[in-house]
Amino acid sequence: MSNKRIVITGGPGTGKTVLISSLEENGFYCFHEVIRTMTLDALNGKPVDELLVNPIDFVDDAKSFNDELISARLKHFTNGKNIDKMHLFYDRGLPDVIAYMNYFNQPIEKRYNDLCLENRYDEVLILPPWKDIYVQDNERMENFEQACGIHEHLEKTYIDLGYKPIEIPFGTIENRLQFVVDLIEKIGE
């Protein structure tokens, strides 16, 4: 079966997880974000310092952390071949790893870019920063301004990789869900 792979991305706190949950509740197959669990594991009970905005600030080995993250996202991508659903939604995609690494000025191995070019999504939907719903927590350490900067890096990374991200407008979760459903009907089955 040939699935349509659709990434939902955007800076932290834009409503991605709520949208993914809503899609799932409406019968769509969704791959969930892996970074929140990885961040909690990396914290390992350490208190969150107000200055920390990136797990790389407190992990013992940044390269291994990023390798684990891109491997987990690649596994989601690969597992999509075995899912008998027309549309597959991903809470973040492979290029998100590169965007975050760029934002935090980390060196990026060529193989990361190669993985992104070899494993292509059919559509990229991006949620813009939305100050009214933004909340910081123990896994989302960025402030709103940093979230906006990350959003810009995400958009640029996807565009640089040849995608044309489609912005999901502000609105209720029902409105956003309907926007996505209408969109996938347009892109065809």
What this model shows, in words?
The protein is of the alpha/beta class and 189 residues long. The protein contains seven helices and five strands, in the order βαβααβααβαβα. The protein has a five-stranded parallel sheet with strand order 2-3-1-4-5, with helices on both faces. β4, α6 (144-160) and β5 (166-167) form a beta-alpha-beta unit. The longest helix is centred in the middle third of the chain and has 18 residues, at 62-79. It starts with a strand and ends with a helix. The mean pLDDT is 85.
What Rg do the Cα atoms give?
A: 16 Å
* Percent of residues in β-strands: 5-15%
- Name the helix and strand elements from N-terminus to C-terminus, one letter apiece: EHEHHEHHEHEH
Average pLDDT = 85
Number of helical segments with 4 or more residues: 7
The separation of the N and C termini measures 11 Å
* Structural class assignment: alpha/beta
Widest sheet: strand order? Answer: 2-3-1-4-5
Number of strands: 5
The quaternary structure here is single chain
Low-pLDDT stretches: none
Which word captures the global form?
A: globular
What proportion of the residues is helical, as a percent range? 40-55%
Major pleated sheet:
5 strands, parallel
